[in-house]
Amino acid sequence: MSNTEAKHHEEEEAPTGEDEDTGAQVAPIVRLEEIAISNGEENKDAILDLKSKLYQFDKEGNQWKERGVGTVKFLKHKETGKVRLLMRQSKTLKIYANHLILPLMSVQEHSGNEKLCVWHARDFADGELKYEREG
């Protein structure tokens, strides 16, 4: 193959950077309907909304283990007045904690640090009901 033939051959195979319009029309296989997504916070007012870490006390290891980092909210229901603690992971919105704040619950400072608090709550995250110490 001569030099002129090689150059001509390379020019034919070289992409031009433009897509050719073939005129083909492709119909969607499935039509998706827009649906309203509810996060369950519509009838509630946020009393408190802040970034936080959630720890759970491990009795076997006798230490605190981190359950997650995210946004914790105290939500007051507009009609019933009940207050719920809700904590979600910041990016995925996975729920780490979701329980009512009851009058018999005790929330205390942990080790004299006003930024840390400890309370007891029922944990059903693993499909088995347990009474856990949270912080």
User: What characteristic shape results from the CA principal axes?
Assistant: elongated
Multimeric status of the protein: single chain
Helix and strand sequence: HEEEEEEE
Measured by DSSP, the beta-strand proportion falls in over 45%
Structure annotation, total helices: 1
Q: Overall mean pLDDT score?
A: 80
CATH top level label of the domain at 44-134:
Mainly Beta
Structural class: mainly beta
Secondary-structure arrangement, i.e. CATH architecture of the domain at 44-134: Roll
What does this structure look like?
With 135 residues, the protein is mainly beta. The protein has a domain at 44-134: PH-domain like, CATH 2.30.29. The protein contains one helix and seven strands, in the order H-E-E-E-E-E-E-E. It has one helix spanning 3-13; strands spanning 44-58, 63-77, 83-89, 95-100, 108-110, 113-123, 130-134. The relative contact order is 0.13.
Topology:
Layout: H1 3-13, E1 44-58, E2 63-77, E3 83-89, E4 95-100, E5 108-110, E6 113-123, E7 130-134
Antiparallel strand pairs: 1-2, 2-3, 3-4, 5-6, 6-7
In short:
This protein is mostly beta strands. The chain has one helix spanning 3-13, and strands at residues 44-58, 63-77, 83-89, 95-100, 108-110, 113-123, 130-134. It comes from Arachis duranensis.
